[in-house]
What we know:
By secondary structure, the chain is α+β, with helices and mostly antiparallel strands. It has 16 helices and 25 strands. Helix content is 36%, strand content 24%. The strands form six sheets. Strands 5, 6, 8, 9, 13, 14, 21, 22, 23 and 24 form a ten-stranded mixed β-sheet that branches. It has a four-stranded antiparallel β-sheet with strand order 15-18-16-17, with helices on both faces. Strands 3-19-20 form a three-stranded antiparallel β-sheet, with no helix packed on it. Helix 8 links the parallel strand 8 and strand 9.
Amino acid sequence: MNTPTLAVQDAINWMMTHNVMLKATLGSSKHAAVSLTPATISEARFNALRESAPIFGQLINAVAENHQFLQEAIEPVAQGDAFFRELIAMHKAIHQKGNAKRTPLLMMRTDFMDDQELGPQLIEFNGIAAGMGPFGQRTHELHRYLQKQSPNAFSNWNENPHAKLIYNLAITRLAEGIVHAAQSIKAQTEEQDRPKFLMVVQENEDNIFDQFLLEQQLREMGIETYRRTFKQLHSSLTTGENERLILDGVGGIDVVYLRAGYQYCDYAAHDLDSKKCCDTLMNTRIFIEQHKVAVNATVSQQLATSKRVQTLLTSMTAEQLTHFDLTLEQAERVQGLLGDMRLVNEESYDFISTEDVDNWVLKNQGEGGGHCIFGEDIPQKLQQLTPDQYETWALMRRVRPAPRRTPALVVREGVADTVDDLISELGLFTVHLDGKPVTADGGYAGYLVRSKASTTTEGGVHSGLGVLDSLAYEAH
């Protein structure tokens, strides 16, 4: 395959000057891994997924606000998973005696892969730290730039050189959703200053560039932006008039956006906790939700987007799904995308021993990469589980996308390489405020494509095995 050095270097330079970067050390960064060959999808299939994604947002919002269902769904998991035990305790503390004053802002990414036989299948919901939308838009813009700037090289790399790139406005659409939420909260006060947005981040965050792109857009739209860790917020949040959330030195906060809180270590503060690990910073998260502020992700949303709830939803009939604010037509539509998931129990080892284990994935409740078990490791792991651990795991039928028909060019750490069997995962963003879509496109807010070799089980961009990508329509 022809891989002109100048065009590859041009792409790297474009990424570096447009903040498609990851922090490498305290004082340095590197460009994110990227494919220079957009994935293709039929226009009809993309439109169907784009129209279905907001229905998933509507569904998850209803699940998140059905507190009895969540308690019953998560309690069995809490028996064998210490983190979920803490999450359910936080949930109870927030919702006892009507203490939850927050307005739920659901900014969700729904991830799909396109099975060769079954079509698009749901992989997972991401309701907390559902990031990289800005990187998704930037990757689309990179491909559009290369198509114009280096058309010959782009045609050589592309599976279909005449394919039309699919616009991605994730930065703008996500920001519009946040602005709408911020303005709706600010309108409930008599304050005359600009709305304020607080992003809760992890210590030593390496994904600051993706976050910066969103913050930059918000500032251009008239929103003040602030970044704090849970530890920094512990001693700097107070209650103002009319149950306003006040940040010291800043004032009333209108939107809280969590890019942390999906793992135990985000709450660890051994110098603050004298009795029990993580209580202090978890109390900070509880405190936030007891105020009149728009929050993504609420603890309810985090539980509603868990693998446990996904498994339960997958087992429901369309009629049962209508209990969560869906019409029968909407329920049938999403049911066709939910895939096949099964709870783990005493019979799971016998079941998997009669199956081809390569057709299944064993997943725990963890967020991000590194939480899946494949192949012959599945029966071995099932045998190791104790009964109280069964509920913390689920079996998912493995999705088998068709690899691209031609080799793809990827660039990682300044080096270009070809991948013969690249497959892609498509994440669609949606924004709902208090259950109502808030973007101009019915709640749809852009997309993220991450691609990897078909032989790779972990496809995260952070892990170094996946690459950023974009979409183009298949030519007729």
